[in-house]
Prior knowledge:
The protein is mostly helical. Helix content is 41%, strand content 3%. The chain is built from 5 helices and 2 strands, in the order H-H-E-E-H-H-H. The protein has a two-stranded antiparallel ribbon with strand order 1-2. The relative contact order is 0.11.
Amino acid sequence: MEIDLTIIGSWLIENNLMNKPFQDLTEPEINALCEQVHFSTLNPVYSPPYIDETGTLYIPQNAHPIHRYWESGGQSIEKTLQAMGVSDEIMDRYVRKEAGGLTRHQACQIWAGCLE
């Protein structure tokens, strides 16, 4: 489970606790800190899919589950690319088979960490 440290850091700053040693925290401060840690895990940080300078689509391991087309509940590559606003050239490359694009299986083989 990933923790969004920006949430924790912001809370520490807002409560003037950033430079206070942990052992000096009061019980209410520790309880509040624990709540913030729990809250930060409920709001995970996802990395967005992206196209690099060579036109290769990358879907990071910590991408939102909606972009993981190979998993149940993930949307199609086409929908992800549409949401990204990619060029027709990129869309053709990955989606439009008649234009020489990749099949779902071919695309899955390219991306590391993709298991079917």
